[in-house]
Amino acid sequence: MAPRRKKIYEGKAKILYEGPEPGTLVQYFKDDATAFNAQKKDVIDGKGVLNNRLSEFFMTGLTNIGVPNHFIRRINMREQLIRQVEIIPLEVIVRNFAAGSMSKRLGLEEGTPLPRPIVEYSYKNDDLGDPMVSEEYVIAFGWANQQDLDDIVSLALRVNDFLSGVFYGVGIKLIDFKIEIGRVWDGDFMRLIVADEISPDSCRLWDAKTGQKLDKDVFRRDLGSLADAYSEVARRLGLLPAQGAPLGKPTLIN
Prior knowledge:
By secondary structure, this protein is of the alpha+beta class.
C-alpha cells in the first residue's frame, strides 16, 4: 500500500497534500460545490475530474506564453503536482463585464461592458466573507507592497488577455474571473506566480450568443445542471468528445 500522505490544507473545493519532492504539493480536486461562502453545498459527481483537467489546460497555456504559474504536471484524473508557494491573502478579481456583486454595488445591468478590464482585490478570509479591499489596505496591512501590486496587476491582465482569447474562440464570453498569486524564491530572488486554479469554479462564463451561464452561477442561482454547464465548457475546448459521456464518467481527451 502507498504511504498515507500528509494533508497540508483543505479548502471548499480542493485538498493540498505534501508533495513527493521538497517545494512541491499535490493538489486534489473534490466534487464539492459551494456558494454564498459555503452556505449552499452539494456534491456534483465528476466535477473535480473536469476542473483538474481544465485547470491543467489553462495553466499549461499560460506557461506556453510565458506567464509563470504553480502547475508542474497532472498526476491522475483528480490530482496535479504543483509548486509550493506562499499565497498572498488576496483574491485578485478581473472584470470585463458587470455581473454579480459589481452589478449590485453600482446598479449596473449584468452583462454591461466595462470601459476597460477592472482589477479588484478581496481579502481571503471565509469568516469575514472575503471582503473587498483597496490597494491602500493591502499595503497598510503588509499583505503586499506597491511593486507586488504592480506585478499582480500585470499578471492578472496577461491572464485576462489569454483567457478572453481562448474563450472567445469557442463562443464564450469571459465576464470575470478570480485568481490567487503566490510568492516563490529562487535563492534570494522572490517572484510572483499564478496559483490556485483556473476553472469554471473561478470564472464567470456566458455563451456569446445566448447569454446562457456556463459557470458556478448555475449552481448559485438554481439555473439547471452544473454538470452539464462544466461539460459544455470542456467540450468546446476539445477536452471532452463532442458527444461526451455524462460528467460522472467523463472520457477526457489527453
